[in-house]
Structures are given as structure tokens and as C-alpha cells.
Amino acid sequence: MAVSVRAVPTLVLSPWGGVLADRMDRRLLSVATAILMSFMALVFAIMLVADQMITVWHVYGYTLLTGIGHSINQPVRQALIANTVPPDKMANALALNAMTVTSMRLLGAILGGVLIETVGFHWNFFFETSLYFGMALLLIPMRTPFQEESTARLASPINNLVEGLRYILKEQSIFRLMVLNFFRTGIFAPLLLLLPAYTVEALGAGAGVGTGMMITMGIGGVTATFAMSSWGFFAKKGLVCLLTLLSGSVVITVLGLSHWIWLSVPIMVIMGLSQSHFIVANQTLVQNIVPDTLRGRVSSVWHYEQGLIPLFSLLIGLTASVIGISHVMTIYGVMAIIIGIVCLIRFKDIRSLD
Quick check: 185 and 312 in contact, CB under 8 A? Predict the structure, then answer.
């Protein structure tokens, strides 16, 4: 429920966050958002230390507020990456950005566990406060030499929103890249939320095995982002998107059929490789195609998929409660393979993008 509540602002506010990113100074907007999120984390930490009557509604309130912050900050950050590096370095920059996400999935979980076990879980929120504030300090001296003069302020915010949506629907390559990204979210993203049920029901194992699967997936992701930032892609970026969708779908199918720890744990490396390759390739293509004056709005729709993760997970989880987690993952994986093959055949324009 906390994850779902955090996703609600993305569904409602993310497109408007993109409008702000195209109307305002992106760097200052990101600084202000980081400071606001730092303040919210500090207040929540103080409430915990003061031993206030913390209820589940306080938790929902905090996750809702942080969700609002992220719904604004995510498209801004995405646009800022493109504004700080030349186009020929875009893929390297986005790969390094993805590496921070994959590596912190490993390090963040470890650090959070250590803090909980040694000094208490409320210190996680003090640490979160310092990270948000540190991010704001790092953004202050940032320069954006590749940002163009915004034309969005010449029209109303509503017209800005409509203009962004029209561009996505009219530009076939952008629209198809968005569809592929939503498809990727529906296939890959629910897996991490379903791992506890999968390890118990399908593998007959405990939390340690699920943690091991997350770690091996993280290793695959870090390896992929390091390789992309250092040596580039193994094929054209559009083809990489389509092939890694297929490889990730195959992993889901194998997990559905597998009842063996020795297979399910190491195969998650392929999932990490597939997901990271797809995200970086897809983001790079989108950022290289879209004009800078629309970059925030297009990025906000790209990140809209974050709000759909709880919905996909809920649908899969409810189905799994009826027919079993292994069966639903097998069926889901086979359907994803079929759709992926159709996309690979039909999306000729995406295959040729680089």
C-alpha cells in the first residue's frame, strides 16, 4: 500500500512536472525539489525520534509527499542530463545515471539494514535527509550548456501539456519507444515486488534466496551499465530495445517453469543485463530525438510508467493467488515473448534507430 500511495502522484502530477521542467529553470527547480524533500524527511525523522504517535496514515502521508517530489524531480533530472553533455556523449551519461540506480539497489539495502540493526530505523530518514540536501548542493554549481531557450512560457500550462501529448502521438518513433517502455514496465518491474511470494511458493525457500536473486540482478545491471558507458552497445540502440525485451521475457518464462534455486538465482543476471540495456538504449533514443523545448514533457510521460508498477503488480498478484505464482509467471512470460516478437517484426523504424 505504501508503494501504491507513492505512485499516485506520478499518475496525477508527472505530466505537470514535465510542464514545469519546460517552463522554469530546470536546475533551480531540481534544487528546490531536493531541499523540500530533505525537509520532509527531516520532519518525519524527528517525529520518530520524539516518539510521536506514528500511525500507518503518517507513513502513507510521508510516501505521498515524497511521491509528489519525485513526480516533479524525475522528468527534470532526465532533461538535465541531456542539457549537460553533448549529444554524442548522451548514451555514456545515461548509462552512468543508470549505474547509480542499479548500484544503490545493492548498497542502499545493505546500508539501510546496517542502520536498522545498529542505531535504529529512524536514522535511515536522517540519512535520507542528508542525501537529498547533498544532491541540492551538488546541483548549485551545475552548468547546462546544451539547454535551449524555452518557448513554453509563451503559452499557457494547459496548452503546454496538450502540445507535449500531441508531439508524442504525432512522432511515430517517440510513440513506439514510449509503448515499448510501458511494455517493459509491465514485464520487468513487478518481478521484484513478487519475489517474496515466488521464493516461498515456487522455490520453497526463504528471504535469503530472494535477496540473492535481487543481488544477482543488481550485478547484471551494474555490469551492463559499466559496459555501455565504457564501450557502447552491442547493436543499434533500437534493436537493443527490442532484443532485450525478448530476453527479459524469456527470463520470466524460465522463472515460471523453474523450481530450482541453482537456476532461478543466476538467471537473474540476464534480467539485470536486459533491463539496464533496454532502459539506457530507450532513454538515449528518446532524448536524442526530442527537441529540448519539449524535453521535460516527453520525459515526464516516459517516467509515467513508474506510477503503473503497483497496478501491474496488483493484477499479477491477484491472478497468482488464484492459479499460483509459477503458472502466472509462465503464462505472463509466454505472452510477453509473443508480443516482443511482434514488435521486433513490425517496428522496422525502431530497429534502424541508433
Answer: yes
Distances in whole angstroms, Cα of residue 2 to Cα of each of 5, 6, 62: 5, 6, 9
Residue showing cell 520518530: 48
Burial class (CB in 10 A: 0-12, 13-18, 19+), 115: middle
According to DSSP, residue 306 is labeled: G
Number of domains forming the structure of the chain: 1
Q: What is the pLDDT of residue 52?
A: 65
Grid cell of 275 as nine digits: 533491463
Query: Is residue 34, in this structure, part of any structural domain at all?
Result: yes
pLDDT digits (tens, 9 = 90+) for 306-328: 777 777 777 887 887 888 888 88
pTM: 0.86
Distance between CA atoms of residues 189 and 11, nearest Å = 16
> Does the residue 353 lie in any domain?
no
Q: Is 141 helix (H, G, I), strand (E, B) or coil?
A: coil
Residue 354 lies in a domain: no
Q: Which amino acid is at 198?
A: Y
Report how far apart the first and last C-alpha atoms of the chain are (Å, whole number): 40
Nearest residue to 90 (alpha-carbon basis) of 232, 219, 201, 185: 232
The Cα–Cα gap between 198 and 89 comes to 40
Q: Read off the C-alpha cell for 136.
A: 541540492
Residue type, 52: Q
State percent of the chain over pLDDT 70.
Answer: 98
Question: Over 70: is that where the pLDDT of 343 sits?
Answer: yes
Continuous segment of H or E residues that includes residue 339? helix 325-346
For residue 75, what are the contacts with CB-CB under 8 A and spacing of at least 6? Answer: 14, 17, 18, 21, 296, 297, 299, 300, 302, 303
Write the CA distances from 331 to 89, 180, 242, 248, 269, integer angstroms.
Answer: 40, 20, 20, 14, 22
Residue 260 DSSP code:
-
Q: Alpha-carbon distance 95 to 97, whole Å?
A: 5
**3-class secondary structure, 205:** coil
Residue 147: DSSP 8-state: P
- For residues 97 and 105, the answer to whether their CB atoms sit within 8 Å is no
Residues of the domain holding 7: 2-142+152-348
Task: Check which CATH number belongs to the domain holding 216 and give it.
Answer: 1.20.1250.20
